[in-house]
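Priority: medium. Attachment 1 of 2:
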């Protein structure tokens, strides 16, 4: 975990300065997400990076807790939130695996560009389910590496080596089918799915999944 935290901290300024790969796609994901947000909602984002998405959503909800393992990312996030005078958004240094959160705490959980970076996505998806209130939504955008990179096993191996020497973060290669199956087996219903056109299967898969009303 510390290795990944150091990697992401080191590249934080560069990450913040890099233009979005596709502005229109990002806008649409924001718009779709906001269709599910309400002013009385408490929201949780894990792997928030430089906080851009939580900062955009904060005026639409009651409260957001956004976590990340990388101090470098969080420093930028906090600076931006301060500059924009956002007061209902709290950033915290924590890993999604280790942070303790009571069940039924949040109305929406966001995990954007993060599931493919985790050791055990199923454990984290199950946690998202547990901390959501009944009828809450889990919104995720995930690069499904195994669908477009034939040599993903090699990538995983190189990633392990790159991570060992601190040059790469952890990468977990899985495909869209596996991702959807994981989300469903945690107990969610898939309510909205979108994989933008262009770049083929290299585009991240955007999913809104709902926790059923009754347990
Ligand atoms: C690719 S960035 C995505 C940032 C942001 N969600 C976005 O869409 O721009 C991945 C982020 O996840 C964070 N991260 C990686 N592993 C994590 C973990 N186990 N728990 C919490 N955050 C993690 C990294 O520090 C990094 O900021």
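Attachment 2 of 2:
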């Amino acid at each position: 975990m510390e290795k990944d935290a150091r990697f992401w901290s080191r590249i934080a300024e560069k990450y913040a300065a890099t233009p979005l790969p596709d502005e229109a796609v990002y806008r649409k994901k924001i718009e779709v997400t906001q269709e599910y947000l309400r002013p009385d909602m408490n929201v949780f984002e894990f792997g928030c990076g430089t906080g851009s998405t939580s900062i955009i959503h904060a005026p639409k909800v009651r409260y957001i807790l956004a976590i990340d393992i990388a101090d470098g990312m969080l420093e930028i996030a906090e600076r931006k939130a301060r500059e924009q005078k956002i007061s209902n958004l709290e950033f915290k240094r924590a890993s999604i695996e280790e942070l303790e959160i009571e069940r039924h705490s949040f109305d929406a959980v966001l995990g954007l560009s993060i599931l493919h970076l985790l050791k055990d996505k199923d454990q984290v998806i199950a946690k998202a389910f547990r901390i959501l209130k009944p009828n809450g939504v889990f919104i995720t955008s995930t690069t499904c590496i195994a669908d477009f990179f034939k040599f993903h096993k090699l990538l995983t191996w190189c990633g392990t080596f790159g991570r060992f020497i601190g040059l790469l973060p952890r990468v977990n290669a899985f495909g869209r089918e596996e991702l959807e199956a994981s989300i469903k087996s945690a107990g969610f219903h898939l309510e909205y799915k979108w994989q933008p056109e262009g770049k083929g299967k290299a585009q991240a898969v955007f999913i809104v999944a709902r926790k059923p009303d009754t347990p």
